[in-house]
Amino acid sequence: MRFKSTAVFLCVLLLGMVGNCAHAQNVKPYTGPLFDAHLHYNEEAWNGKVGPHNVPDVVQRMNKSGVKAFIANSRPNAGTITLAASAEVKAAGMQVVPFIRLYRNRADYSGWFADESIYQMVLTEYAKGTASGAYKGIGEFHLYDSANANGEVAKKLMRFAQDKQLAVLAHVDDDAIDLLMAHAPQARLIWAHTGIGGASVARVRALLTKYPKLMGELSYRPGLTCESGQLCPEWRSLVLDFPDRFLIGSDTWINQRWAYYEDTMSSYRTWLGGLPNQVAQNIAWRNGAALFNLKETYDK
Ligand SMILES: [Zn+2]
Questions:
Q1: Distance between alpha carbon 29 and the CA centroid of its chain, in Å?
Q2: DSSP string of 130-198?
């Protein structure tokens, strides 16, 4: 048998499915609305005022990418508050889902789980709300050592989130998922970069099965995509088995991510286009819309 290119040969070799490979070469990108479930508007993006990525700039990037709603979580929270009050965001018809960030500055990344002043800040921010309404979640937070999931403030925040029905966006490893869920079994935990830290797809599957409210956000997920930017076989089968549990996100944690925002979103559209339409619509939009009671903007 002869193959047109090495890429096609490898595709056939790895997947053993000629039909799927041919499909991957010709797949049409998903064209519906997107929900960006992991967006930061950090201080360095706009310096509290204009640049390099002022509000019109980021709104234009989201608009061009077909983003109709987004989770805003920014260091410090001023970025989120600004987007939530923005006339440009409103004029573009986008819905803001504001999250309370735990970090006032970079130093807070490494000690928040034991810092009572951060817990108090979260309570104060929650009481204030935003121009787009109440906060809908907390995070993103990081745990570089999963044992810190048992820090007093981590425990209190998980329970607070559960009581107020706030979602929690957590950049943690698989062990920390178990620890965090033990504090608040009904919490709506969104696992940033699902499985980051080396968890296998089998382990991710086991955790999704164990915790029916656990959601997976897919930015920076190593091993997610393979040939032609389509999902790798193991991931494809996981998202087909759990079509209601995944979200996509930009993770604009540094300015470079804003500079390439449209490319990031376009790469999601590539692999979403390779999924059955209903599954693509769920991951792109409906799972987030259901989680946060968003207004339906589906126009397809
Ligand atoms: Zn992030």
A1: 20
A2: BTTBS--EEEEEE-SSGGGGGSHHHHHHHHHHHHHT-EEEEE--HHHHHHHHHH-TT-EEEETTTTTTT
Separation of alpha carbons 45 and 72, rounded Å? 13
The alpha carbon of 165 and the centre of ligand 1 are apart by a number of angstroms equal to 21
Q: How far is the CA of 4 from the centre of ligand 1 (A)?
A: 40
DSSP letter, residue 274: T
For residue 182, the CA-to-ligand 1 centroid distance in Å is 23
Do β-strands 34-39 and 215-217 pair in parallel, antiparallel, or remain unpaired?
unpaired
Q: Can you give the pTM of this predicted structure?
A: 0.90
Instruction: Tell me the per-residue pLDDT of 96-127, one tens digit each, with 9 for 90 and over.
Output: 999 999 988 878 888 999 999 999 999 999 99
